Amino acid sequence: MATVMSNEHTDEAPPRRRAPALPTQLLLGLFLVALVVYFSVSSPYFLSVDNFRNILLSVAVLGVVAVPATLLMVSANVDLSVGSAAAFCGMLFAVVAEDHGLALGVAAALAGGLLAGAVNGGLVALIGINSIITTLGMLSVLRGATKLVSNGQTVGIDGFRGLGSGSLAGVPTPVWIFALVAAAFVVLMRYTAFGRGIYALGANPHAARLVGIRPAPNLFALFVISGGLAALAGLILTSQLRAATPLSAEGLELSVVAAVLLGGASLTGGRGTVVGTLVGVLILGTLNNGLTILNVTSFWQEVARGGVLILAVGLDQLRRLRRD
Amino acid sequence: MATVMSNEHTDEAPPRRRAPALPTQLLLGLFLVALVVYFSVSSPYFLSVDNFRNILLSVAVLGVVAVPATLLMVSANVDLSVGSAAAFCGMLFAVVAEDHGLALGVAAALAGGLLAGAVNGGLVALIGINSIITTLGMLSVLRGATKLVSNGQTVGIDGFRGLGSGSLAGVPTPVWIFALVAAAFVVLMRYTAFGRGIYALGANPHAARLVGIRPAPNLFALFVISGGLAALAGLILTSQLRAATPLSAEGLELSVVAAVLLGGASLTGGRGTVVGTLVGVLILGTLNNGLTILNVTSFWQEVARGGVLILAVGLDQLRRLRRD
Amino acid sequence: DSGAGGSGAAGGELPEVCQGQDGAGRRVGFANLGESVPFAVQVRTGIERVAEQCNVQILNADNELDPQRALDNVRTFVTQGVDALVEFQVDAGIAEAICDLAGDRPVIAIDIPHKPCATFMGADNRGAGEMTGAGAGELAKQKWNCDLDAVVTFEGFASGEPSIQRLNGAIAGLEQVCPDLEYGDFDDWAETVPGSIVTRVDADRTEPAFTKGRDWLTAHPAADHVVALCLNEDACLGFHSAVEQAGRAGQVIFASNGGDPSAHDLIRTDEFYAGATGFFPENYGELVVPNMIRMMNGEKPAADPLLMEHTFITAANIDDIYPAEK
Amino acid sequence: MFRLEVRGLYKSFGNVPVLHGVDVDAVGGRVLALLGENGAGKSTTVKILAGDHRCDAGTISVSGRPVDIRSPRDAEAIGIRAIFQEFLDAPQLSVAENICLGRLPRRGWRVDWRAVRRTARTVLDQLGVDLPLDRPVEQLGVAQRQIVEIARALVADARLLILDEPTSALAAAEVENLFRFVRRLRDDGVAIIYITHRLDEVAEIADDVVVFRDGRVAAAGPVTEFDQHALVTAMVGQDIGASIDLPRHPPAHAALTVRDVHLAGHVDGVSLTAHAGEVLSLFGRLGCGALELAEAMFGLRRFDAGTMTVADSTGQPAGPWAAIRAGIGFLPVDRKTQGVLNGLSAAENIAAADWSRKARFGMLSPRASRAAFQRWQEELRIVAPKGAGQPIETLSGGNQQKIMLGRWLERGATVLLLAEPTRGVDVGARAEIYRILSDLAGRGVAIIVVSSDIDEVLRVSDRIVVFSRGRVSAELTRAEADRARLTRAAAMKETV
Ligand SMILES: Nc1ncnc2c1ncn2[C@@H]1O[C@H](COP(=O)(O)OP(=O)(O)OP(=O)(O)O)[C@@H](O)[C@H]1O
Ligand SMILES: Nc1ncnc2c1ncn2[C@@H]1O[C@H](COP(=O)(O)OP(=O)(O)OP(=O)(O)O)[C@@H](O)[C@H]1O
Ligand SMILES: [Mg+2]
Ligand SMILES: [Mg+2]
To answer: How confident is the model at residue D327 (pLDDT cuts 50, 70, 90)?
Structure first.
């Protein structure tokens, strides 16, 4: 007969020496706190309600597009055309509002953004073109269109200050909008069938399809949402600057990608949270603000910004390396 | 006990009746030919040896960095810092050459490029930071460093024309260099264990690791190569312009990504060929050249470039859709 | 050659702007600075307008603020066999490479000198800058008796000579009117000079000027007599919004270079917007085209360098300069 | 003589202990079968040997000398080769290159592609399979991919060969070829660790057995000392008794009917009807067309010709979403690429197919998913040490499979299409799944099982339709079916 071993082996696992896992977002949050402490100690002007309002205001536009970009990245897609789309919509607004009034201007801007999103969505979700290529192409198309609309000129606009310069309960309107968008996306991504479906699609598109989630309409909707929020961002920007310029929001896409990746999302899909992106956005904003307030020269600012970006993500990675 | 069956036809899937697939690269090549034909018919100046030399010359710098970027993308990584690295190395060269002679200048530039590559490689391959974030950070760091080196000024350089303006057998030196780099990478990617290891790593890093392919040293080497070739590109550029400017090669990274993706590579790794990238690079160059020769206004050029990018990839996708 | 189709003067008398020069059958390549810059678009529009009137065919290209692209464009023009080149790019350092490619074709360089080969045309950057600074200074003298807390500039650190010349000039112009302040020596370009009341900010577009401007205001809470000098209107527009949003209107005097229409309303209505030095890019063509025809005919240009006249546009004179806008 | 001794191996993931000090001996010239329920720690043990995981404590020695396996390269240096339960191939690369992955033959500095192809061809020949050498493996079916995996492990000379459920996707013929190959290696003195849930294979191939239970060794010894009953008892920890016959069901109305279906290259004029309350098996060899037909019934492939009726609606579903709405559920063969939603929790994985119904105005409560998990955890005996929130990819293979099945139970499908439903499932749970299928049928669900496992088909079916080369070659009631008839019908070249 075979040896049947007793089960009385020591029940104890061998002693473990690991630290309990600190979630990525928390670590990133600590990093943000460290930045704030550093700048507060280094400059008397940094730590003030006024300056925090500055920081929030400076990232509101970025935030309004970075939040939907998070869900896009969860679905393993990116929208690199958000900056151009924001500029395009802002310009549409200014040009239409000049002749036909603010209401029509706003309508034109939103329609433009949703249409741009629908084109992106159609190409990616229905035809199946890679989202990087598609939106890189649209980045160029929309930037060209922006210049065509205004013949390459800056268009000033008056009487449309509320969206960009108003405030409620001491908090500037753009910050409110950013907060509302973020809150809506927290709910969307955690507590709706649509949001969870996007996670499933990003994690394993084939398997998601087999449980009845339809990639095409879901992704299409996502790009349309991204386009609509880019229009909103363009309107805020135009309202803040009181002018639509052909170069507005240039390079915004790279900040968006940086913020979303900082926040723990991954281009391979299935991962990413709004809270992470918020922290990412705030790190970028705090850094820009703090360096300017410290009067760091612009060349060194550029170096520091890159360095901090790497550092913020690197810390998390180093910690994981140590744990394994 | 299992029943033993004969194994006469357990092997292949049943015969497939689909049209033989036209490879993506060939379709893309046809697209390039169509572009050339269109421009030739539309303008008397397009179809000439001189103009083809122009086109090749205009894409040589892009090509020298897009080729290694292909292999990087096969490994599921990108190097977004190539433009900044090229500018940085060009500037290093100019500043060092001014005081210490050309030879030392070239050495400094190459050392700078390899070092930048090693930093990227160290952060990505050894520490494990996402390559987009890392190289986005380095993009900023190196651009800042470029301006620091020259205090933001353009530095003229004399007596270093050969690399950028020389020619051999009627073909400009930069084009020769581009061709050599491409040829070397064809061999590297198809016929060396290193190259095939990169394909395996990109296709499935876990599987590659389990068959003994070590991710870290391979990826590290790849980034160093990319940095070295960025330095070469920077030298060519400086030699062509006879000056190193703080803004040169800005935005090069997006052209690189566009060319490589056009050529059929995928950011998820495992896919991509040098030939595809060559065609991608040539499409971009031909388009810029042809649109200018047709005297298309710059705003419309921007729109057209984006459109053609989407079209080139979209055609391939549409064809696949139809086949399925 | 298809020539400049539909010219306004075929056969008939040439309009006055042509200064009697007929460019029939001539093809000129115009490589623009970068069509994302409103100023450059106005230059192009002006050149196209005059060229059509004088029967010159213009081939356009966009240098996209990229030196490599500028070289590619010259090559393309040469391949197309243009008779002459108008080169608008800001990097003096690559002038030599451009001149080599141009060969013996006549070249007019806009706004920065291309020493070896080209006739300079355009702004007196330093002089225009001084005009801007002096204009701001006059207002500062009137409002605050030159009692300034700070001077802040918005410019493009990496945009080459024109930016440096205009802003160095602007600081110097301000100093001439309000001399008794610590400016520091910026003649060789420097970002900061210790002890200076001047802060130079790297922001030549609306958005960065807005964001960095607000940060600057935060870091200077006590500064309520400030002069802002801008490379262009876009930058001043951004900082102007920042000042208003920070609730500090009336604490900053603005003056910009260029004179783009986007700032005309502000110049008319905001007493703290001192004005803008007009470069009149829409009129560049009136100098470029006739002189280029002369050069293609083997004659000398009417002057070398061909300098635009600048005017400081203020609320007082703007309606005379732009009567149509009223 | 090669002898690998593992002593006191401990391993935890996070704070969940998985191995509590296991001892395993693998000896050259002998095949060791490693058995145990899903989640017992079999794969974890062999991954440690292959250098994929590091153990927390324990010693490994080879022929008496202690070794430290820190990476796959260390394992390879010792002569350990492994194929894993989940495919680890490079999908975009060719079959030939995948087989030689990591050890491409070279001539001088360059890869010798002819030798690559030759090597691949040789191994495949020895396995008695013919695969297109230049095709990217992503274009192959599961079984073919599994063969590529096996071939890779066989290319290099091994001193210890580890096979973790290599036959779960294979039909009998390939299994037999694999066994021949394994016996030859064994006779050459190679040590072999073989993990399986098919106890009949143990009798056929193994010399020794080790049975794991909950991360401990529950029994070990020469195979001759165990009968099947003893093995099962050791695995489960109690005597589960003989397998009882499943109750039969009277067929009710037609639930799903297809007529004259053609799928180019796969199916050539097939008609069949599944009735509510019956278990219908589609039996055949690899590539016989049954799987493709099932996929088409779920809207994954277009019919080239033919009609389909489900419930009252006629027509082929436009896609999986439409099929699901019509009450159809589908369990795919390839769990990894088509089944698990990695990164999502076990609970969400089990609830995913039912999200559209669970949502109220689009809102979905996480509690609903957790409730779904709890509903099926007990019934399917799902082992998830970290509970409902454990990411699915960290569950053992067999437990993942149970969740895939639970997904459709939760959805309450009225027609269930199940491709190889017990792939990788342990004996206890397999009996459980059969019982559940029988229950479901009793409740009026129509169940279609696509299987190449003859025992499964004989055990579970009310009716069996045999496929051969894209056609129906026989239709048998359970009473009529036996091994011989099924085997003959599946090999049939002409239709009856
Ligand atoms: N990365 C991981 N994180 C957390 N738990 C894990 C991880 N990998 C495995 N486990 C757990 O370890 C236990 C043992 O898993 P293992 O894969 O070794 O089981 P197995 O015996 O191979 O089962 P099966 O027969 O189902 O393949 C399982 O409960 C599983 O959930
Ligand atoms: N990545 C690959 N995967 C599978 N097969 C390949 C791959 N690359 C090349 N081959 C095939 O390998 C075979 C030999 O290729 P190749 O011509 O490179 O060999 P070679 O060693 O150079 O032979 P020769 O001595 O004829 O030059 C060809 O049939 C080719 O299609
Ligand atoms: Mg297992
Ligand atoms: Mg050969």
So the answer is: very high
* CA B323/CA D219 separation, integer angstroms: 55
Residues D268 and D133 in one domain: no
Question: Is the domain of D380 the same as that of D478?
Answer: yes
User: Are D72 and D166 members of one domain?
Assistant: yes
| H or E element in which residue D419 lies | strand D415-419
Average pLDDT score over residue span B160-170: 88
With CA atoms as reference, report the closest residue to B58 among C95, C66, C65, C69: C69
User: Could you give the ipTM of this predicted complex?
Assistant: 0.87
Please identify which residue in the block is written with the tokens 């930058």. Answer: C235
Same domain, D227 and D270: no
Q: Tens digits of per-residue pLDDT, B8-19? A: 332 223 233 333
Asked whether the beta carbons of residue A192 and residue D348 sit closer than 8 angstroms, the reply is no
State yes or no: pLDDT of C222 exceeds 70.
yes
Chains A and C lie in contact, requiring 3 or more CB pairs less than 8 Å apart: yes
Residue D308 has pLDDT above 90, yes or no: yes
Number of compact structural domains in chain D? 2
Same domain, D165 and D52: yes
Measured from the alpha carbon of residue B190, the closest ligand is: 2
> Is residue D220 domain-resident?
yes
For C174, how many CA atoms within 13 A lie in the half-sphere containing its CB? 35
pLDDT for residue D217 is more than 70 = yes
Q: Which of D236, D265, D300 is at the close of a domain?
A: D236
Q: Does chain B reach chain A with at least 3 CB pairs under 8 Å?
A: yes
For position D115, which CATH number holds? Answer: 3.40.50.300
User: With helix as H, strand as E and coil as C, how does B256-292 read?
Assistant: HHHHHHHCCCCCCCCCCCHHHHHHHHHHHHHHHHHHH
- Per-residue model confidence (pLDDT) at position B10: 28
Other Cβ atoms closer than 10 A to A278: 26
State the nearest Cα–Cα gap between D417 and chain A, in angstroms: 12
CA A167 / ligand 4 centre spacing (Å): 71
- Percent of residues, chain B, with pLDDT higher than 70: 92
Rounded mean pLDDT, D289-299: 95
Is residue D245 domain-resident?
A: no
- Mean pLDDT over C309-318 rounds to 95
Does one domain contain both D120 and D159? Answer: yes
Residue C9 pLDDT: 45
Same domain assignment for residues D476 and D418: yes
**Residue A238, CB-side half-sphere exposure with 13 Å CA sphere:** 35
Q: Is D366 on the interface with A (CB under 8 A)?
A: yes
| pLDDT per position as a tens digit, D56-106 | 999 999 989 999 999 999 999 999 999 998 888 999 999 999 999 988 999
Structural domain contains residue D221: yes
Is the Cβ–Cβ distance between A28 and A312 less than 8 Å?
Answer: yes
Which residues of chain A are modeled with pLDDT < 70?
1-22, 322-324
Q: Which of C35, C102, C45 is nearest to C65 (CA)?
A: C35
Based on the domain organization, do D56 and D101 belong to the same domain? yes
Question: What is the reported pTM?
Answer: 0.89
The amino acid occupying position C150 is A
Residue D166 falls within a domain, yes or no? yes
In chain D, the percentage of residues whose pLDDT exceeds 90 is 61
Structural domain including D417 reads 254-490
Given D236, D271, D300, which residue is the final one in a domain? Answer: D236
> Residues D122-135, buried b or exposed e (16+ Cβ, 10 A)?
ebbeebbbebebee
